[in-house]
Amino acid sequence: MKAIAVSEFKGIPTLMDLPKPAIRPGAVLIKVQAAGINPFDWKMIDGIMNNGKTPHQFPLIMGVDGAGIIDEVGEGVTRFKKGDLVYGQFIHMPIGEGSYAEYAIVPEKSGLTMAPMRISPEEAAAVPTSGMTALQMIDKLKLKKGDVILINGATGGVGSFATQIAAAKGLKVLATVGDDAAAKRMHHLGAAVTINYKKAPVFDQVKAKYPQGIDGLIDLVSNKEDFHHNLDLLKEGGGAFTTVFVADEEGMKARNLHGGNFETEGGPQALDQLSRLIDQGQIKVPVENRIKLEDVPGAIEASRNGKATGKTVIVF
């Protein structure tokens, strides 16, 4: 089978011919129809999970998010049957049996569930990591209808989902954008206000519009200094999350703010919640770029260099 893999940590992603995985007890073999690209995918080949406790295998097939058809079920599998359309996070131990391949083997008990009915496999593959991250951050901010939330980095995958989920919950979303086209898109996804970060500092624009403060912040882009400066926009008791891991959580508590560094907790229940929102029409899945397997090395390089735009999905 064709797959994108590396032969060592920090290796260059390469299109390889590798053996089709053999079915094993408690697992399913998926004929992959599409795989979503996330920054975590290249962080994984750089060794972010190489802590001495997590097993890895080489060649290490990249990829976490995917969607496809169950091709075989192993002994003891009860949740799925051959022919089921599924999606989710394919990551499991050992690291290296990922979604950037024509076939992937995934334990039944991993973050896998039935795919939403209303969208294509390409759209489904764009959902898992970004969608669950957005959903869980919005839930954990514990905001109420009418509250104001700033999403800094709104135009990417997580930001696009967070904007829609927040708007569906009745929150007033302030979304950062870089141009008029992005502003139009974010309004279409539910943003009440767009903040063009190229015209003036985001902090200054939000402070001018909401001198009394805002209720929540999701910051997907800021460095440590800017994130902590943005906390000054929050009312006392407000909440903020960063996915860049730059928060001083003890300092936030001292200021009566909740939140901090955010890590996604994947699983079928969160995916099922996203599926319901998608099938109810409350979430549109933003896929900006559809590529082939041979295009992946270039897409990974663009992601590394911060030049990727929108959600990219590999279509098989």
In short:
With 316 residues, the chain is of the alpha/beta class. The protein contains ten helices and 17 strands.
What does this structure look like?
This protein is of the alpha/beta class. It folds into two domains: 2-126 and 287-315, Quinone Oxidoreductase, Chain A, domain 1 (Alpha-Beta Complex); 129-261, Rossmann fold (3-Layer(aba) Sandwich), CATH 3.40.50. The chain has helices at residues 39-45, 121-125, 128-141, 157-168, 180-188, 202-209, 224-230, 249-254, 268-279, 296-304, and strands at 2-6, 14-17, 27-36, 56-61, 65-73, 85-89, 95-97, 103-107, 111-114, 148-152, 172-177, 193-196, 214-219, 234-242, 258-261, 289-291, 312-315. The strands form three sheets. Strands 3, 5, 6, 8, 9, 16 and 17 form a seven-stranded mixed sheet that branches. It has a six-stranded parallel sheet with strand order 12-11-10-13-14-15, with helices on both faces. Helix 3 (128-141) packs across helix 4 (157-168). The longest helix has 14 residues, at 128-141. The mean pLDDT is 95.
